[in-house]
Amino acid sequence: MKLLLLCSFVLLCGLTSAMRKQGVGVRGKLLCGTQPLANAKVKIVDTDTGPDPDDTLDEKTTDSRGHFQLDGTTRELTDIDPVLYIWHDCYDADTPCQRKVTIKLPKKYIHSGTVENWIELGEMNMEGHFAEEDRECVH
């Protein structure tokens, strides 16, 4: 019994040390037409498959000028699969729930704890429709 506990402890310690700290930093400005899109919710998530739940790396809302800057980390054995979610009501105020846009982020920007290269999205006009878009009431 003691040997089983010791082996489990050693295995758990080895697995924990194998988990790599990884993150991504993204920033940009959201517009609704020519106006800044203030108070839009933005979130970086590491999407996972199987029983492992998705990990939120960072989330905020855009400022009064539509700007946002997100940077967060998690620990994973394999490379993270980062995505940016944006929830907004640009040209959509009368429709229930919010528009949710999903943007897959390039893996080449993954860092090990400190952002070295930001993903610069620049200005994005959210009044158009995106290929990766749906609706979500709870987020």
TrEMBL record:
The keyword Signal applies. Pfam families: TTR-52. One of its GO terms (cellular component) is cell surface. Gene3D superfamilies: 2.60.40.3330. Residues 1-18 form the signal peptide. Keywords: Signal. Residues 58-68 have a biased composition (Basic and acidic residues). It comes from Plectus sambesii. Residues 46-68 are annotated as: Disordered. Belongs to the nematode transthyretin-like family. InterPro entries: Transthyretin-like, Transthyretin-like_sf. This is Transthyretin-like family protein.
